[in-house]
């Protein structure tokens, strides 16, 4: 007997297991929350590749639990499996963190270390996934059923607590702590690595108190062997022997009728699992597509605080804690009161509908989000805007055509880009500028699919023009991009927060640099001669791209801010409905699915169904990987595609449920009496008389 918590039947060892799970889930979700932005901003991958790799990692995390279960049940046991794979887990975190240090090797080295780290993490987290909860359950004596049930509630609460806190904290470490001249991904990944080290130490610290059950053989292997034997027998012997009631009955020569009956029960449920990956394909995009959507939204909640785009994922964990009791205590009883029959499979179908509605909401948000995005120029075209510093309205003709129908005002706040047809990949173009009745001409070199600003300024021989290349793609972390145009005859540098811009004299333009969102009333401008002054730049808003023109007026340097690309004008709060709908769908689909699987599986087959359930998550990520890399759709169209696919799958799933009859696995013990040798072939005797199964309340969350 192990030590008990004072005055209770709870083993003291479960404290170590719960703390271990909290730290491990903190490390996993804290690291995963950053991945998409890490791929886009640090490794400089495009959105589609970043999404694909994110979901490839997610899929691998849910394929590897089968390996962990095989190792634990057939070889090492749960305790040693958790220890050894946790070490692999820690190594993966460390490698991942080192790969995020800019000074460590080239970009190829960073990519190699990042991918190796993610593979090790996937094997670590996936390998221990089927072991930790079961190992915690092993600590209780058989008679302490209520205590074991409460442990699982606490266990799942620790999962959601770790997820909630990590998705708040690690994005802050990423963006608010600057290191190596930018976002500190090394620290943001390093803290989850440290938490995983703590998780391992805590788990080892309780080793003297654990009850350890030896490996008893893996039922999953036995199931696969039985199915394989039945298929082989049917193929080779069906021509010479009478037909059997079920194809699995061909395994009766080697395997017991009870095992065959149990496998039949499991296969009925696994067939229902076939449509389920589509739900997870939508659900797991909270960390990829929805995070990327948030980077193009306004993240400020007044002057009180701003949220990070990758912090929005914490809504799911927070809403889970709120929605579970609301559904259990209010919504389900109200639906039952209205005499609507609630069955587990109906709940799951409703969950699919809510997830599809969540993507419908995300589509409406996306359509409005892209209105502030400047689309790149098509092939054999470029984009051109004019910055008029000549002192009055000017007209610009390109190739003898008036590209800008209206006169261009002096110091225009928000110039607009017009499409310039080139007729080829590179072209020298004649530009005619008319200012105050006089014309001047200049030839400029344009390349297709590029964006440019034509700067008009006064010169000794009339209006001069200068062409500079623009960057029009919004910053993927949501922060504004800024550049300075220096009209003074002296070089200068400008310091905005911690960012320094060096600008040469005579209408030179600095490169775009990322500046954190905020009000900047005291930026510092220093001339080469050493004279410094303060600049009031005002608000540098989310997603905007600015050209700030520095001019001398009344003996002072004055900034004039131009908005080349408009700021994000859709507030991130509009993502709340889609998160709420998705979480409601998760409560109805995921929690109910776990309970349904548990209730419909024989006692020794629950791990088989758990493996099948985890595989639906893995295949869901594979679906996103395929669509992200292969579809090539606009984002809002991709959202519509996923919503439509899930609704179609929901219809198929609903039809399949009409042919499913609920089973009471406990009847097996009555039908197969070891002493009497009594065996029954007709599984109809195990069917429930109605389609409503009493469900166990197994937990307060579904993050695994």
Automatic annotation (TrEMBL):
Q: What is this protein called?
A: Solute carrier family 15 member 2
Q: Which Pfam families match?
A: PTR2
- Quick one: where's region Disordered? 678-704
Q: Is this entry keyworded Chaperone?
A: no
Give me the segments passing through the membrane: 52-71, 83-105, 111-132, 153-173, 185-206, 265-283, 317-337, 349-370, 608-627, 639-663
In this chain, composition skew of type Basic and acidic residues spans: 678-690
Family note: Belongs to the major facilitator superfamily. Proton-dependent oligopeptide transporter (POT/PTR) (TC 2.A.17) family.
Cite the entry's keywords alphabetically: Membrane, Peptide transport, Protein transport, Symport, Transmembrane, Transmembrane helix, Transport
Indicate where this protein resides in the cell: Membrane
Gene3D superfamilies to which the protein is assigned, alphabetical: MFS general substrate transporter like domains
The gene name on file is slc15a2
CC per GO annotation: membrane
Q: PANTHER family recorded for this chain? A: OLIGOPEPTIDE TRANSPORTER-RELATED (PTHR11654)
Task: Name the source organism.
Answer: Stegastes partitus (bicolor damselfish)
InterPro entries associated with the record: MFS_trans_sf, POT_fam, PTR2_symporter_CS, SLC15A2
